[in-house]
Amino acid sequence: MTNPILAPELLELIDNGDHAKLREVVDTVHPAETADFVAALDDTDVWRFLSVVPQQQAAEIFSHFDLERQVELAGGANRRAMARMLEELPHDDRADLVRRLDPQVTEQILPLVAKAEREDIRKLASYAEGTAGALMSSDYATLRPDMTVAQALEQVRLQAPSRETIYYIYVVDENHRLIGLVSLKDLILAKPGQTIRDIMHEDVISTDVNDDQEPVAHKIEKYDLLAIPVVNGDGKLVGIITHDDVLDVIRQEQQEDVEKLMAIGGRHLAGEYLRTPAWTHFRNRVTWVVILAILGLVSGLIVQNFEGLLLQFAILAAFMPMLADTGGNTGSQSATLVVRALAMEEVRPKDMLRVILKELRVSILLAVVLALVAFGRVMAFGGGSTMPEGASLAWVGMAISIALGFQVISATLIGAILPLGAAKMKLDPAVVASPALTTIVDITGLLLFFGTAKLLLGV
């Protein structure tokens, strides 16, 4: 979100050539807040501003622009300035930007970038989106196992200014294979004459470069890591993923789960609702909406099949909305809890029986409460409803209550079974559970409702 409040003042300082004052202002404001002000300017003025700010500081401000704004600026005419900016940006940020650029723009800018940075950008940008490789930075510190602590501290001092983090320092062998880890605290507390091999931790928690980003985020969260090393198939260290990058992943995955639960397809990126064209929103939603609408016709056929029962007991129609809402609500609650538990790896498909037993106990309690509510409703307001002569209002209320109770139990169990079954078949539980749940619960609910009522009322 851009903030235009300070933009005129910034432009005035640039126009007056008061670069010292401009830098003074920038020094007193956090780069993220400066980015909010500067992003409100047009492309030409943004580049004018960035050109008078120290390059490293300019890159930090640029990195806080949202990705769409970065793409706009990179696609402008200032190719050389963009090339210098890429050289200063954090490694993972510049790779993300290059992935989003038009290939023609990329081919115009990259030849202007220094060779080492250019090769690093091409390598990081080559990894598939959503993998650890696409998320990682190649900006990390390393040590050799035969170094003394004194030598290691001197090397860390040399590497620190250009590294994203030095709290974790990775130990590699002559083939760059990851063999251990030391923290900055380990180095400070160790004796100068000790070797790195003596103090390093060999049981390093790492991730493969092709792993999906979501398990990587869970791993960092589970082990309370500030960063996690990324290795390739040969065990060679190729990058690190820091905790701040994982925050972005968690936010994106949450956005994805919410949208999938609501049967929305397409890309699931946070913060892009207003930027996404209406036609794209339509395409992302229409498929499941049409499929579910067609399946919903089955519910209509069931109601039509029990038309005679409804004509004799019109009071049953009054409870159909409650039936649909209650089934959908209890099923959605169950599905949401199970999908979340699967995502957090609290349960696995092999735990299906345990989950079913737990949800069965919960559903029985819910069924009793809701059945009593339905029975009270019948007895309080059902006296004037159309019923065959001699039919007992209390017995009708009992039939409705029992039918509703069966619906609650079945909907809750379906809500638990669907995501677990999807996970067992290697499908996305969020995609399968919610769209299918509502329709299945409606169909089974109507069958249970009318079947139970017909049986108990003797029609």
Protein model, in words:
The protein has 23 helices and 6 strands. It has 459 residues and is mostly helical. It folds into 3 domains: 7-128, MgtE N-terminal fold (Alpha Horseshoe); 142-248, CBS-domain (Roll), CATH 3.10.580; 278-457, Tetracycline Repressor, domain 2 (Orthogonal Bundle), CATH 1.10.357.20. A 3-stranded mixed β-sheet has the order 1-2-3. A 3-stranded mixed β-sheet has the order 4-5-6. Strand 1 (142-143), helix 12 (149-159) and strand 2 form a beta-alpha-beta unit. It starts with 6 loop residues before the first helix and ends with a helix.
Which CATH class of the largest domain is shown? Mainly Alpha
Terminus-to-terminus distance: 64 Å
The H-level CATH homologous superfamily of the largest domain, spelled out, is SLC41 divalent cation transporters, integral membrane domain
Mean pLDDT: 86
